[in-house]
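User: My collaborator sent over this chain with a note saying "see what the structure looks like." That's all I know about it. Can you take a look?
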Amino acid sequence: MEELPFRQIHLDFHTSPDIPGIAEAFDPEEFAETLARAHVNSVTCFARDHHGMIYYASQKFPERIHPHLKHRNLLQEQIDACHRRGIRVPIYITVQWDHYTAEHHPEWLAIDDKGRIIGTPPYEPGFYRHLCVNTGYRDFLKVHTQEVLETIHGVDGLFFDIVQTRECSCPECRAAMRRRGLDPSQPDARWQFAQEMMAEFKAEMTQWVRQWNSECSIFYNRGHVGVAERAVRTHYTHFELESLPSGGWGYLHFPTAMRYARTLGLECAGQTGKFHTSWGDFHSFKNQAALEFECFTMLSLGAKCIVGDQLEPHGRLSNAVYDLIGSVYAQVEAVEPWCRKVQPLSDIAVMTTEPWFPEDRGLTPEMRGVVRILTEGGHQFDIVDPEADLTGYRVVILPDRVPVNESLATKLTRYHAQGGAILASFESGLASGEFSRAVLGVIREGEAPYSPDYLLPRGHLGRGLPETEHVMYQRGVQVRVEPGFDIACETIIPYFNRTWEHFCSHRHTPSSGRPGYPGVVTGPGTVYFAHPVFSQYCRISRFLSKAVSRSLSREREPQAEPPGFSPGARAWRLRERITRGRAPIPVPPWQ
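Assistant: Without extra context I'll predict from the sequence alone. Here is the result:
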């Protein structure tokens, strides 16, 4: 596949069958010219939407063509007009959300362990009832996809949407679990089967597509790219990281997900939206500074840009929307020569907690905290999983809750023996007693007896901080320090814990001035914090970033910027020259 375009649009078109005059104002030349004028060089257009409506001249499923579609071959007209201007057009196909199919084939619906339909209840608005791809629905998807590939001329790519791993207890899934020796009444068995089944679906669908088109791009979207994609990445041609900051993802999601996805060997694009909030927010506009910030963040991390829009039912693109997008994409186009085929030069690897705590798209409090600290400190880092190659990283960070098993302990021990530095905090690494004792120099004795307690920064870790107590709001662990390791920072205990029997003032008891137990332990190439410093930074504190930065700088000597370093940063500087005289881009508040 050719290199992904830098300036893409994802053009939603989920249009109710109850709305008349669909695409009545559509003019193919005007459509393509509006995109070209906005510096767009790729636009994803719809074959079938979440309502289940089709937007091309389907012969196999004529009943699904939108009943009020004025241009019966809308998709083909969009593609032809865009191709005449050199604009790429991947094709959108919905998978697990399809209102028409849910209504006409209830036997294909996913069922939870209580026997209930998963998704939108019957009397609530929305098309979010989940369809199970382990039913006859998979056969429909294959036939529909085949028709798109055979009927539509010039298929550049396929974007399969809503391809999520969900437990299902429908009859087909229960029977399949039994055939594999799994007990469907057990949550772990259902989750194992759901993962296996979804991986098999992607493999089968990619193989099916390749029978009809050997070159088109293929992407399966679940709203997040994370550790689950490693095992199935061979079925993708690239990654598109859906991440609308104002639409529920927040400003920390994309930089976190991208710093992981870019380590998996596939080209990546970031996807935000023009919307003030999220998808389907008609007639709303993101301010230009925010869209600039989001697109240039994508470039700085090595991703291409996608902006989400939604075509209104009449079929004409909004000039106001494409004036906004064009004002940003003109700047993206100007810096593209500095952003092509870039490779991140990262000296820090952060071990993600997503394999163990997958909730909130992997944005656990400790992951939010570590990304904030390193980003605000200007550090270059990747996010990795236990299967990653650690060669080339100078520091590995284990934030708060990384349960180091035997396999990961062996890898980290080898990495440390070869000169790599390790920074760990709280419960990370303590599950493996030999690793925590030999590498981190600590043995867990239990949870800390006091909370909140205090750290007294001294020496290298305390440089730049007042030498006085700093409150640690979250309870840490109490550890015993092994010979050969140093207590770099003592924990100072309060007079007592706050209870109904004895308390002081409004919040917590002040310091008694008495040392209690180790707070920070250092050894040859290691630093260990006994408190959950990263989740605490996410939730409350800003003291910790300096201490973490001090511990990192202790292991890293300053290096001159090598030739060709940080093309994204150069893109930022060039952008500032292009827009000189205007207000600088504001950095949105971290969420």
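A starting point for your reply to your collaborator: Residues 557-591 have pLDDT under 50 and may be disordered.
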